[in-house]
Amino acid sequence: MARSSVHVSYATVPMVIVMTVLCLFLANNVTHARMPVTYYVGGVYGWDPIIPMDTWARGKIFYAGDILEFKYDYLTSNVMVVNRTGYETCIANEGAKEYTSGDARISLPYGLSYYIGTYDASDCSAGLKMAIRAIS
Ligand SMILES: *[C@@H]1O[C@H](CO)[C@@H](O)[C@H](O)[C@H]1NC(C)=O
């Protein structure tokens, strides 16, 4: 009995070390996972057709879960999350979601998403539109 319990406890030591190392490794991986990045859409210009918003987005690599922060004057502008038809036609589709607060934080879904400004009919065609593809 005593012998066998001694034997078990010695055998347990390497296992404890393995588990400890494994836990440290996993914890390290978790803490080094990529944190979501917040992007201020349009940079210093904000959500504004002063520059085409697609130009701002070009060349950036977006990940699902990143945050797009749209800053705009809520008296003169809005943000609508539309589908591809809405983006192409500059007319919000049925079911599009509108943001009117002037400061919209939107979490990027995986895949393609489309944003347009529709407060003024000419905004979207002037460049207040953006298509973004987020990877996983
Ligand atoms: C966008 O939504 C409208 C309204 O629901 C729909 O008619 C249209 O086919 C959709 N476009 C796409 C590309 O899914």
UniProtKB/TrEMBL annotation:
Segments crossing the lipid bilayer: 6-27
Stored PROSITE patterns: PHYTOCYANIN (PS51485)
One GO term describing the cellular component: plasma membrane
Gene3D superfamilies the record matches: Cupredoxins - blue copper proteins
An MF annotation (GO) of this entry: electron transfer activity
Domain Phytocyanin: start-end pairs: 37-136
A Pfam family: Cu_bind_like
InterPro entries the record matches: Cupredoxin, Phytocyanin-like, Phytocyanin_dom
Alphabetical UniProt keywords: Membrane, Transmembrane, Transmembrane helix
UniProt cross-references to SUPFAM superfamilies, sorted A to Z: Cupredoxins
Matching PANTHER family: BLUE COPPER PROTEIN, PHYTOCYANIN DOMAIN-CONTAINING PROTEIN
Protein name (Swiss-Prot/TrEMBL): Phytocyanin domain-containing protein
